[in-house]
Amino acid sequence: MPNASETSDALVSVQNLRKEFDISGGILEQLSLRRGRIVRRRESVKALNGVTLNIARGEALCLVGESGCGKTTAGRAIIGLLAPSGGEVHYDGRRIDRLRRAEMLPYRKKMQMIFQNPYASLNPRKRVTETLLEPARFHFPEQSEAEHLRRVESVMESVGVDPAWGARFPHEFSGGQRQRISIARALMVDPEFIVADEPISALDVSIQAQVLNLLMRARAERGLTYLFITHDLSVVGHFGDRVAVMYLGRICELGETREVFSAPRHPYTRALLSAIPKIGKDESAHIKLAGEVQTPLDLPSGCVFRRRCAHADEQCARAVPELHDIGASRVACHAVADGRI
After folding, report:
1. What share of the chain is helix, strand, coil (3-state, %, to 5)?
2. Using an 8 Å Cβ cutoff, are 48 and 214 in contact?
3. What is the pLDDT of residues 12-70, one digit of tens each?
4. Ramachandran class of 68: left when φ > 0, alpha when ψ lies in -120 to 50, beta otherwise
5. How far apart are CA 264 and CA 243, in angstroms?
6. 3-class SS at 155?
7. Hey, what domains does the chain have and what are their CATH numbers?
């Protein structure tokens, strides 16, 4: 567990966050006949299984992992778009995951999200100006319409979008331009904390660097704090102060980006980083994981990574590894803690 000072200095603090999605269906779908008896069967997807994170004010924490590991679910649960099944979310020292809708409103301004797909996240029936005016009108009702329009113009200019484009519809823009508009929408309410959910994955490579630079400039100018969700490790090295590696709903390694990239400790982190192509790199250095990714419908006992790990033993099958300070990083691995790796 994090120490008290680390938690108190955090703008966002997440403790043992859990999220399950019930996929059992209706009551009739849950019932079946076995050996002459009616049996009720319930199933759930265990997307988050005890995530603990602390994000300091002004930092960019990157959350990485393969598809389906729970990255997006974590971001949505932290920001309040999904109700957690368990655990706690604190913002600036106050617990917010149990707040009623009216109590949560002040935090809606402070926390915003940039979604992955710019082709689906903008309302196709609204012009750009209307899209940007909506959050301003809702969160700043005391301001006049003229003030709202000046805010729209200022934010559009700050993200490199011509204010004259405000009369257009989203389908008239390219993917990169749409994502800039999505970023502008998030900035309209002067947030402190932004969850950026794979904001460049749907864009051409030539546009990705422009959007990344825009996010970095907005952070410097506005003092933003980021939770940057991505599966692209090459982006993490340029954008993130720290990186958290997730596997099947659990954090397996957490530390400063430079430290994790130069000396990865968890077997899964090592396998991920070994897959990054480098000029002159020996192909034999690539770590190939055995087995298939375990389904979150039926998680294994103990360590969720053990069935793909070459270092797993009986302890890994019995006990779930907790994050412990190992060097400059925090690692959840029995083999690392025991000195077997």
Report:
1. 40, 25, 40
2. no
3. 999 999 999 988 777 777 777 788 788 877 788 899 999 999 999 999 999 999 888 99
4. left
5. 11
6. helix
7. 99-240 (3.40.50.300)
